[in-house]
Amino acid sequence: MGIAAAAWMWLMVAVGSLASRLCSSSPTINNSSSSCLSWRLAVEANNARAWRTVPPTCHDYVGSYMTGGQYQRDLDMVVQQITAYITTEVQLSNNNNSASLDAWILDVDDTCLSNVLYYRRKRFGCDPYDPTGFKSWAVKGASPAVPEIRTLFRKLVTAGFKVFLITGRDGDSLAHSTIQNLHTQGYSGYQRLFMRNSSYKGQSAVAFKSEIRKQLVGEGYKIWGNVGDQWSDLAGDCAGERTFKIPNPMYFVP
Amino acid sequence: MGIAAAAWMWLMVAVGSLASRLCSSSPTINNSSSSCLSWRLAVEANNARAWRTVPPTCHDYVGSYMTGGQYQRDLDMVVQQITAYITTEVQLSNNNNSASLDAWILDVDDTCLSNVLYYRRKRFGCDPYDPTGFKSWAVKGASPAVPEIRTLFRKLVTAGFKVFLITGRDGDSLAHSTIQNLHTQGYSGYQRLFMRNSSYKGQSAVAFKSEIRKQLVGEGYKIWGNVGDQWSDLAGDCAGERTFKIPNPMYFVP
């Protein structure tokens, strides 16, 4: 996803259809875990879109979800599905060959790296998006890895995939800290890290990420898989043979 | 979805990559509701695909889910999202005008009509797909409406949408009972019902439904929304301005 660039996105939203999107982001959620589960399901199934904050009545639910074990279990299940797909359906053209064109795409924020520690301070997404606050967090380069994704990443690299990381983070201000953060958290051996530069500012994540993927396909790569915590990581052109949605009920990136 | 035609689909699967798909449909599911919740989430987020049966350990979970209230709540949430979208983002070109080209697409099985009574006898999807059994059920024309979708349907028709029903059910054998079933359950005023005829046999639901949608777009229709219980209802060409996934953890249609 592209948190750092989401300021631009939300600016676009503000200029555009703010009123309608605000309305559509306000469903009636009772203060019950079953209602919040329905809301979370709607988020993960891409039914609920363009929401600005977690419904206030779901604060405790989302906090418990992210830190109490179920997020972990849901993530494990996705990784299990990814592993089954790689094992049984992917046929690498040139296993472990440096010239192979078998590609895999990973998003960075809340896919490779976890921002749960940051979002805990933002009431797990009940507070509205704070671009300055997030930038201050990201520039520290202190996001821990999502361990299951790091394990997946290493398996992918070892298996011979060329792993590309695509993030909406601003390259001008966050390249150094992001590269450092990925390195210290054990992400070594990826092929390229794509960050949003000035030519992509103001574009939605779907448009930006589609452009990068089209570029890769133009270079001859076959994108076997694409993993992200936002549907905007997985929609658009050249999305990949399979896409996998990592859970994230804390924020929405258009 | 297209249950009746799924026999063809599964035949294709058998001829094709049966082994790999069988493997990928067998994740490790502990006998706990939290694990089954993770599996259900993976289904709804389109991470788990090509599964042939509900994991045996999730029989009680899926049964409780479908009949104990949570399915209902999840469905209500999707309809809430649809209503918000229609109210705030759709701009009908020619409200209530018979010549308008504002289209909406609904799937039939487990979208307009519920087969929960049938699947209860099939251990809520723990038994493998039974084409003969399903046909015997469908030919009776006794599926009750999904009440929330019927209410949505009526609102759509009243608002001026041209509602098209697209089902993978076989038109040769099930046209009469399906039309009757829809009528007795209060689905009156739809524009057209598309069923799978001989020229679409052997095609996946994605291919068949894409063809129909392309045809509609070719006629000048704008597809504002598309609602189905299977991702194969919502994937492919001309999917619609927005798609909405109705929950269904009982079966998978490729």
From TrEMBL, chains A, B:
Entries under Gene3D superfamilies matching the protein: HAD superfamily/HAD-like
Family note: Belongs to the APS1/VSP family.
PANTHER family according to UniProt: ACID PHOSPHATASE-LIKE PROTEIN, HAD SUPERFAMILY, SUBFAMILY IIIB ACID PHOSPHATASE
Name the record gives this protein: Acid phosphatase
Species for this entry: Stephania japonica
One Pfam family linked to the record: Acid_phosphat_B
This protein's UniProt keywords: Glycoprotein, Signal
GO molecular function, one term: acid phosphatase activity
Signal sequence range: 1-19
